[in-house]
RNA sequence: GCGCCCGUAGCUCAGUGGAUAGAGCACCGGCCUCCGGAGCCGGGUGCGGAGGUUCGAUUCCUCUCGGGCGUACCA
């Protein structure tokens, strides 16, 4: 139930009817219906809603926009939309609609009755998969993974709340070149720690975490690996390390509030022959050729800058080959839409991935890729530098430890994915209203505090039907207007893959609440007013809670 | 060089082709001390630049300047 959309639909029908009547009676002529909008004007002087239909019709109808607007307004029967109070023509030819503010009196009952479903959309009957983080299991989770986790999970939440059937998936890169190198690195460290004088591979993983893993292996198996064949030994240490890394990744992401439906192993694609199958299909369709001993995919046919190797001269498939098989597999699993959240460093991969999807016969628009720009951490006003030892600045688990899950998620979700963001660690930790996440949570806690006091004084929240909403003044109505927007915000955030809208909305609503709180009392007022304001508080609380829940941030009752 | 993303107020950032472009912080002035730790009111110069499409452009297109990323038989 979306109150704004309901009104908008009503107004749209009204305008359409008026247009038809105008044409039938010969007031003006048009052949095709313009793609007009019913929107909420920025300036409230311009009404509650307005439409640009007359401006769009001017050329076809060969009349001045204002003239057309006058005619349309003359054909509209006000009584069709009960809350419609008046209309006028303004500006270049806009038609403005003014509502009777009493329509807002219905909002609290709607919100209270829907509770934690307020803002949700109707079932879309569309299967959407969101794949995010998919960090390499060869190292720690870094800030890119953190941002991807927060954005991906919040986006998935928003889509689910908006009515889509959503699955969250993590792609485990447990095969391929990097795993080979990972194995060689682990083996080299093992042998070194066991006293052998051998060189560490040039391209190897030099981080401390590899050494730590090897120490665990030694603790468990001591010298048992020394007698193994090198390949067996590498397979052994890789298996051990992958188990350990995946346990770490799962645990850290769980602490970050993320639960996946599917953990998908790249290795199963190779072992199940799906990589070969996908390449065969591309070859049959004529998109594969051989050159310099390697197999290439003709991604230039799909707008890419250069063709891309899928099987190296040494016979091993590339990461891209596995990714083609992986995406084919996704579509074969019946998803209508597949969304990937990727770091900006993968953007070169986008066009060829879409090309491969198209080559396999799928509509490339069904694959949507959300690219995130880089994160710069600040502490004490200066950039936190990359650590040479660990290869990261701060890992996700350290970030959660330092600022907490709630602040971390809110900060990442607050910014749109495609802007490079600065993350101020000091601000995230601050327990003051300067801190955006604290500001929103504090609004919720304050509301609960009011209810605790009300209860102590013997007052309870009355059902909306017993509350006189005419007690609401302009500020209460302004808040209710904002709350009425919530379902639209969810819907737009889901449609445009923009979870930052929800964070911003929560901040705006919290701001309206704090301002109200500072100007008015809820308790110890006239009973009718107190009842109405308690209901308003409940309405705000529910909406803030629902918004925060999408972002993955808790709504505490006390702080 | 080529490709993608970004460029909005002093700073961090919003802004589904609409009417007079916003928020928070910072800064200045005035007020207030009340459910929860201070708050309230007021104060402003900005869409990097130049063209184009449009009745209308921060939004779409072209060029240009600046920043980031990519441009591997790495992932």
Count of strand segments: 15
Under CATH, the homologous superfamily of one domain reads Isoleucyl-tRNA Synthetase, Domain 1
What is the gyration radius calculated from CA atoms? 29 Å
The neighbouring-strand order within the major sheet is 7-6-5-11-12
For the sheet with most strands, the description reads: 5 strands, parallel
Q: What would you say this structure looks like, in words?
A:
- By secondary structure, the chain is α/β, with parallel strands linked by helices.
- Among the domains are: 3-99, Arginyl tRNA synthetase N-terminal domain (Gyrase A, domain 2, 2-Layer Sandwich), CATH 3.30.1360.70; 107-122 and 434-551, Orthogonal Bundle (Isoleucyl-tRNA Synthetase, Domain 1), CATH 1.10.730.10.
- Helices cover 50% and strands 13% of the residues.
- The chain has helices spanning 3-24, 53-61, 65-75, 107-114, 143-161, 177-193, 208-221, 230-255, 266-271, 274-284, 319-332, 348-359, 396-403, 405-414, 425-429, 436-456, 474-484, 486-495, 500-519, 527-551, and strands at 38-39, 49-51, 84-90, 94-99, 127-131, 165-172, 262-265, 288-291, 294-297, 308-311, 337-343, 367-372, 375-379, 382-383, 421-424.
- β8 and β9 form a beta hairpin.
- The protein is flat, with a radius of gyration of 29 Å.
- The relative contact order is 0.11.
- It binds one RNA strand of 75 nucleotides through α2, α6, β9, β10 and α11.
